[in-house]
Specification:
This protein has 371 residues and is of the alpha/beta class. It has 2 domains: 62 residues, no CATH class; 281 residues, Zn peptidases (Aminopeptidase, 3-Layer(aba) Sandwich), CATH 3.40.630. The chain has 11 helices and 12 strands. The strands form 3 sheets. A 6-stranded mixed sheet has the order 4-5-7-6-8-11, sandwiched between helices. It has a 3-stranded antiparallel sheet with strand order 2-1-3. A 3-stranded mixed sheet has the order 10-9-12, covered by helices on one side. Strand 1 and strand 2 form a beta hairpin. 51% of the residues are buried.
Length: 371
């Protein structure tokens, strides 16, 4: 999640390299999209980092632009999903108590301290991906679940994304996706700086792991495909999710809805589930608000985060419905992300707050993937 102190950046924003969009990537340049209706522009790697530091949202389309262009215009909504009111309380409610702050604390403590950083081009960034994959495989194995598949999705950078699939009764049905990003960054020193990323986005990552654990142990088998995605390379332009969402669009896959969990552990001054209302699907977001009312104890508020603020935007860009529940009002969120201070011991960090997003995610998974 790109939330940092604001810096004056007018010069950088107007410093697009004078290279036609159609030209192949030039060494040291990245093709960035700065708005949904804007043509992408070339920026240097240094300029891209300044965008992160200034909280300027963008999507790095260097590797997806040509692929997306060949697919033609994006339909307003590729998946014509119907979102009825929550109706699977009998399946969801008994499992809510199985979600655990102690399990989440144990996982997040290990995840946020085992790696110096989880930078997408660093060796430890790749090792963090392997940690997620081995952790989920162990959960599936311990639960005797041979129907849970864990796949490393490779990119053109060293870090892989992870896709976890629960086998469905109807394998051809619309896919329900819960997602987060597994990389981290220290904006002062991206490659070698300490970046524990406990909230950004260790919190969302561990939310997903705990939901997977509860579903696996309960024996839950979805009627339609259910997937959990852990994206690499989010911090530098939604690289992993952009690659995957474009691949799903290219393959003609039908997605019922995507729920992005990115930063869920800092309640701000007034605890709530803050539903992002820009660059999302309004119908799916309204459904998520109903889920929050049904399965969480927190009130629902609204906030805006701007273009390209997290991985849900990759799905929106490709025409799929996405929603993004956030930890607090966007301007009242965790002030220490992208620094060495983003730890579980940071002032305000709350596993109890984080648990409410696990409840929401569990409800989303079951309600959308059940018959």
């Amino acid at each position: 999640m790109k939330v940092t102190q604001l810096f004056a950046l007018a010069a950088t924003l107007h410093a697009a390299a004078a290279v036609p969009v159609e030209k192949p990537a030039t060494a040291g340049l990245r093709l960035l999209k700065l708005g949904s209706d804007e043509e992408p522009v070339w920026k240097t790697v240094a300029e891209r980092l300044e965008l992160v530091r200034s909280d300027t949202g963008f999507i790095d389309v260097t590797k997806t632009y040509e692929r997306s262009k060949k697919l033609g215009p994006v339909a307003q909504k590729l998946a014509k999903a119907d979102y009825p009111s929550p109706s699977h309380q009998s399946a969801v409610e008994p499992l809510l108590s199985k979600l655990s702050t102690s399990a989440q604390r144990a996982d997040l403590t290990e995840y946020s301290t085992s790696f110096h950083n989880r930078y997408y081009e660093a060796k430890e960034g790749a090792e963090a991906s392997e940690w997620i994959q081995s952790t989920v495989r162990a959960i599936a194995s311990d639960a005797g679940r041979t129907d849970i598949k864990v796949t490393a999705f490779e990119h053109d950078f060293i870090q892989t994304s992870t896709i976890v699939e629960f086998a469905a009764e109807d394998a051809s049905g619309e896919i329900t996706i819960l997602s987060g990003h597994m990389d981290s960054i220290n904006q002062s020193d991206p490659e070698t700086g300490l970046a524990p990323g406990a909230d950004d986005d260790g919190s969302g990552t561990v939310n997903l792991i705990d939901i997977i654990r509860v579903l696996a142990q309960s024996g839950y088998k979805p009627a339609t495909p259910l997937e959990f995605h852990f994206y690499g390379g989010e911090e530098l332009g939604l690289l992993g999710s952009g690659d995957i969402a474009t691949s799903y669009r290219s393959a003609g896959k039908s997605v019922k809805g995507v729920l992005q969990l990115d930063m869920t552990a800092f309640p701000g001054s007034s605890p709530s589930i803050s539903l992002i209302d820009d660059n999302v699907d309004s119908a799916l977001t309204a459904f998520v608000a109903e889920l929050a009312g049904e399965y969480s104890s927190l009130p629902v508020t609204k906030s805006s985060c701007g273009y390209g603020c997290s991985d849900h935007a990759s799905w929106t860009e490709n025409g799929f419905p996405s929603a993004f529940p956030f930890e607090a009002a966007f301007d009242d969120s965790n002030p220490v992300i992208h620094t060495s201070g983003d730890t579980i011991d940071a002032d305000g960090f709350s596993f109890e707050h984080m648990l409410e997003f696990s409840k929401l995610g569990l409800g989303f998974a079951i309600e959308l993937s059940s018959a």
